[in-house]
Amino acid sequence: MGAAPQAPRTRVTARARDLRFDAGSLSLNLVATVGRRPVGPVERMGDAERLAAWCRGVGLTPAPGYAADALLRALHSVRDAAYDIASSLLDGHHPSPASVDLVNALAAGEPPAPRLELTADGLRPAPGSDLLTEDALLSAVARDLITLVSDESRRKRLTMCASEVCRMLYLNPASGRPRQWCSMRRCGNTAKAAAHRRRRAATDGNRP
């Protein structure tokens, strides 16, 4: 019996550790904080600084005094559940009951309602109305995932990057041509360059 094929070997560069905010939804942007899942997962949100950067990138503002370590652990847990659930829509596996229970439990918390303030210059969001407790922030992620799963049009747009190294989950645009790659500038160009090298090698190999 032959040996199992080996996954592609790639260097873990600074770019591979970049946070991604182009997955098309809040919950998928959280899932994308792990890169290169099939060949060797790369943690992109592993400390308080990266957590703060991710929150800024997705437009969530934790209330002052939040426990970064605890929130990070909680987001890692819901991230695993979100990946389990979202990927099941593509490969047909049954997500773990624990994943579903966790998402449902987190979604049960009510995020605070945004408020307006009337000033001499007109209306504006009330100061602090965008601040989220840890529970509210986790609820926002869980509710986004449930909305994605519940919306047939969004489910149909869910796809996985064609790169064997990347396999990022993302939503294709509602209109226009579906994307094969999570990003043409990233995986698309890498795949094109690899295909060019293979064609050139084959041509060189056929020369007398």
TrEMBL record:
Residues 157-200 form the Zinc finger CGNR domain. It comes from the Bacteria. This is Zinc finger CGNR domain-containing protein. InterPro entries: ABATE (IPR010852), ABATE_dom_sf (IPR023286), Znf_CGNR (IPR021005). It holds the Pfam family ABATE. Transmembrane segments: none annotated.
